[in-house]
Amino acid sequence: MHEPPPYQQPHHPFPPTFGHYKPRRALWDTIWDNKAVRVGGLFLLLALCGLVILALVREQTGTEGFLVGLGLAVLPVPLLIAAFRWMDRVEPKPWRNLIFAFAWGSCAATLVALLANGYATKWLMTTVDGAPGTDASAWGATFVAPVVEESAKAAAVLLLYLFRRRDFNGIVDGVVIAGITATGFAFTENILYLGNAFASDQSFGYEGLRSTTAATFFVRVLMSPFAHPLFTSMTGLGFGIAATFPPRRRFLRVVIPVVALLTAMLLHGVWNGSATLPGGGFLAVYALFMVPVFGVLTWLTIWSRQNELRTIRAHLPAYQAAGWLTPPEPLALSSMRARGIARDLARRTGGPAAARTVAEYISFATSLAFLRHRAYRGTPTPDFTAREQELLHHLWQRKDTAQPALAQATAAVPQPFAPPAQPWGQPPVPGPVWPPVQGR
After folding, report:
1. Which of 24, 123, 313, 433 matches a 20 to 30 Å C-alpha distance to 297?
2. CA distance 411 to 422
3. Sign of CA dihedral 78, 224, 180, 151
């Protein structure tokens, strides 16, 4: 693997004024290249899906059931989103990506699942229902719903993987995007289940803790709010691993996400199928299978986050040696504790604006480290040089506020025995990183 071309200050900060030849393009290509058109089209698609799913859910639950289901289903959403944001603290994903993931899960994926599952259940009722030992609803929940729902949710992860590769660097990114998508899906699905349960209780006069609504709330909201995020996180895990492979390993970059998606479907099927087991079968699957898998995935995500901090610690010294960063910064920027202290120091001395400047500085420095890390492992972005210049420019604009705070915060970080000269397991840097131009 070769080091990407080092940053070099351009001699001409502005491009020449003469024109360049631009070939004629088709009208459709010109329209599609307009970012506003793409964003508007995507927003319109999700809005239409939301309106349709809203009408379908309200038709099944009634207005009162819909409102009750909405009020109960929203309770775990802030906690789940906060948990995924905590996992993503090292290099937080842009809110636009998370909003898209949640909207896709709650609108598009649920609409696809509701329609496909409905058609599949009707087909099963006409083909296998009534046969000895068969139940169309159970078969649909165990074998059809996992395939349909996990595929619909995986589409959001795939779209961000393809069109937002700059923000997709590894395991944590995949798990967070998949988890947020599944949180949106579970939110809408819980409205449907809780609303139907409430409507049923109203019809039969049930109320209190023995009602269907209370039982549904306990199982879906209190006992297993992580179920859908856990299933889809397997898919995100596969895409996150695939993002670390260079382009020449095309086979692995395709196979691993597919295997991960199949794993998500398997987990989902086991979970749905356990509801039909007699006696304490459901609780046994929950305690002996689902909880351990959740624990392993949580540990893997936390380990990956620590690995991201080590990546920052390994790749920023090159910029520190060239004069872009001060000596304490690689250590401070690779410590979550030092980052927090630096923001607090800036807030006490310069107010919220200074704290925001430090937070932006940390974000740009983190992106710079991951940009260089991707180049080391053989997966650089096509716009590596331009992106590196852009990030360094943003750092230079904020250094007067951020660097003193980070220098003071370094005292709270344990000092290593010897900082690594090069990223672990990587070849030496073939050339220096160009120093910044003074007065910039």
Report:
1. 313
2. 23
3. negative
